[in-house]
Amino acid sequence: xxxxxxxxxxxxxxxxxxxxxxxxxxxxxxxxxxxxxxxxxxxxxxxxxxxxxxxxxxxxxxxxxxxxxxxxxxxxxxxxxxxxxxxxxxxxxxxxxxxxxxxxxxxxxxxxxxxxxxxxxxxxxxxxxxxxxxxxxxxxxxxxxxxxxxxxxxxxxxxxxxxxxxxxxxxxxxxxxxxxxxxxxxxxxxxxxxxxxxxxxxxxxxxxxxxxxxxxxxxxxxxxxxxxxxxxxxxxxxxxxxxxxxxxxxxxxxxxxxxxxxxxxxxxxxxxxxxxxxxxxxxxxxxxxxxxxxxxxxxxxxxxxxxxxxxxxxxxxxxxxxxxxxxxxxxxxxxxxxxxxxxxxxxxxxxxxxxxxxxxxxxxxxxxxxxxxxxx
Amino acid sequence: xxxxxxxxxxxxxxxxxxxxxxxxxxxxxxxxxxxxxxxxxxxxxxxxxxxxxxxxxxxxxxxxxxxxxxxxxxxxxxxxxxxxxxxxxxxxxxxxxxxxxxxxxxxxxxxxxxxxxxxxxxxxxxxxxxxxxxxxxxxxxxxxxxxxxxxxxxxxxxxxxxxxxxxxxxxxxxxxxxxxxxxxxxxxxxxxxxxxxxxxxxxxxxxxxxxxxxxxxxxxxxxxxxxxxxxxxxxxxxxxxxxxxxxxxxxxxxxxxxxxxxxxxxxxxxxxxxxxxxxxxxxxxxxxxxxxxxxxxxxxxxxxxxxxxxxxxxxxxxxxxxxxxxxxxx
Lengths: 376, 330
Prior knowledge:
The complex is a heterodimer.
Chain A: H1 3-7, E1 13-15, H2 35-60, H3 75-82, E2 90-93, H4 98-103, H5 108-115, E3 139-142, H6 149-163, E4 169-174, H7 181-192, E5 197-203, E6 206-207, E7 210-211, H8 212-215, H9 220-226, E8 231-235, H10 239-254, E9 260-265, H11 285-295, H12 297-307, H13 313-336
Parallel strand pairs in A: 2-3, 2-4, 4-5, 5-9, 8-9
Antiparallel strand pairs in A: 1-8, 6-7
Helix pairs in contact in A: 2-12, 2-13, 3-10, 5-13, 6-7
Chain B: E1 2-5, H1 6-20, E2 24-28, H2 44-48, E3 53-55, H3 60-72, E4 76-80, H4 91-98, H5 101-104, E5 114-119, H6 134-138, E6 144-146, H7 151-163, E7 168-173, E8 180-183, E9 199-202, E10 207-211, H8 215-228, E11 233-237, E12 240-242, H9 246-256, E13 259-262, H10 271-282, E14 292-294, H11 305-311, H12 315-325
Helix pairs in contact in B: 1-7, 3-4, 8-12, 9-10
């Protein structure tokens, strides 16, 4: 699919007549941000990049197992669409979730330790790459079933409205999720109940190896339109554009604008997962190389900062060194962390072990951590 | 004590718990303006308003998942399925989200919520509306499963389920909604039946008929008939399948040395399979005969009245099973 190449660099826009007063900012300028903020953006995106590179490296030498989906190339979306939120706002996402967790405030150490399957991991080593959670930070998980996070997002937004708070829930998904029933059901519920939810599709153009154009007859924003949910498109390779857009949108939703749909145009620089080569059967090397060259969110910001004399090459190098050190420390933290105690096998299955009756039927009573047969 | 219907008992439990805790809300198809497809939620919209009694679109996956999300951030949703047959559309949210959330998050995020509605067959509703769905729920660790058979159990167990901190599948019976029975008066204090406690609905010494849900009444009828032949049966109502009162199962088997498991669902991997496994594992030496199961015929539910009747577990089949276990000629 080549059309997105030209589209991806356009400023954000809102489509459809169903909108209820929301508007998307366009043409945000570097000058809208302080030098400190811009440096913070650069540092965060570098951290995401180096974190994922470290994960890739660790996976290659067997320190990380299972599935592992990297976010390299999509850093501006993770930062720009999450950073404008408050800590008590919620983010829920699919399984490509490492950098989004970092963006919502989780420390690199516990996230890396989770990838390593360690007791100090954010999910105590029970979730792994696809299931990063940070309840305290409002990061409500990485979820492994495509689109399943959408009804849950509607539920959190429902809870905000139920309690009369001004919290907002942001729900990420990949482009393939828009073909799930959960997508349609959730947009509809969010629309009829005017829930404070923002549904963000990170459109990296491929659902695993299937180009979006092959599995949808219409552009995705048309679907949101049909539910009366205002649909926006943003160039998610541009942190300035994305951050400003989201900051404005979140404010509108907080003030009662109702659910919103965002197509965040992006591109995945790596394979779908670790077993998928970067290019090959479904996309060409030329395509990937071209996009990496033209649309690297870190390079885009770097060039703008250099041009505006807001950052020097030395400053960037120093920042990168610092970030690499932070990621190394995260990896060391993970490496040195203990494995989960075998007794943890049985913890966290139930929040409440009832006073009566048996809850576990594996006949392993007496093994470490086994809650036993109730009153047996 | 007051004599009320199973439906009214459920309604009382809902009203009392919603009154007690503002984080409890009811959502489902037709629960508000229509008063519930089976009128279980009658009057609740008037009493609690549309904030807390919410009509949903026909989107089982969607509103079940919405309940999961609301529970993740501390509300206590009651998600009504018009019948558990329709919950098959929602099973992804039940099994992959609600049941696993606490575990996947390393203990950070729980889902205190109730999925409720009728399960099993009614009358001539044919294949897609007549399934006993317990087994799909009880199979997954992380979920609790409750199957009340009487008005009192319905009330006391629903209140306990709403207060439980885990996802609970609360499975009612369409043919039970009009059943009348004694239930303690609300004025006499909070009536709670803890999960995990079976109830011996009838006592006997010769054989144990162990069962759950609506089949309790089939078992009691069979026991009455057997009594005329001089056979006294224990009828053990498990009431909750997870947690499971294994002690009560072992106690009745140790007393009578003979057991039949009766359930409404299909045989392969049925609830009875697990119960029989527990009995042979933990009370083998107490048995005088193999444990026999009575289930629905291993076919989709037919529509024709005569076929439906022979597909369902019946009093006669329970008696035949008991005779087999007692080595008696019927």
